[in-house]
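Subject: Sanity check before I submit

Could someone independently write out the structure tokens for this chain? I want to compare against mine line by line before I put it in a report. The sequence has 294 residues.
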Amino acid sequence: MTTDLVRDYLGTPLHLELDARQHFRLLRNVFALVFASSVFIHLLVQQDDALPGMLFHATMVGLLYTVAIGLATMVLYGLRNAMQRVHVWHLWSASLAGFVLGYYILPLEGLMAWPTDVDTGGHMAEIGFLRMLPVWFVVTYLLVQPYLNEGLRAELARLRDINALLESRDRPVAGTGQMVHFESGRTAFELDVHAIRNIVVDDHYCYVHYQHEDGYAKRDLALPLREVLALLPPGFVQVHRSHVINPGHVASLQRKGRSIRVLLDGGYEAPVSRHRLDEVLPLIQQQPEISRAR
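---
Independent answer below. Compare away.
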């Protein structure tokens, strides 16, 4: 579960669009955090340090790291069109690159200190790169969060539009005569394609959930999901590594925190992987017709 959450978080698509005020606030927070962290580290490792040198060095560290993070995000902005999709892990990677760059341009603080006659000798070595890693982690969180919040607001508006479309559409009709044949060892059965609601992976089995009389039933298959997918006609949508749905049985889409779930007929909920979201939502919105079984 934890692995899935991390994978979904890092795979979340980002829309790299922030106005100038938001971007300035972001870089201001980076500077403030790095400056405060540098002062704190100085107090821990050099308690008898001269105050002017400590404050000057913390200011230079904050400025240089802010410049480095700014350069890294500018490069990412420039490449976003060529990359087509920017995900959270891209921003974490750019932040790490900027932080490493910031650390290796820190010797410049000695050159900047020379005209002011402030002694910064040994300060960079005392801080150390490993001590700055927790700071990098918090800085990156501050860097990513505004983009995530913007994306979530746009995503919520999109979900409202899709739910309104789903409420107005006609409900699926079973019994169309388009049959899908499933077979695994001694297990063999046929189901009407429009009656199939979803397929779920659990342990080493796939369970096919389908419309049956006034409710829903399920049949198990000792097959991997990729082989079950090969039996299905076009139109079914894989929303998660262990869930495939029939868009004709989607009742609504729900957001719980950062997670997205698709509510199917009969009250069944299936998770939607965030890294699949940009592919899944248009397919549900378009409500494609399930093709005839191959």
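---
OP: Matches mine. For the report I'm noting this point. The mean pLDDT is 77.
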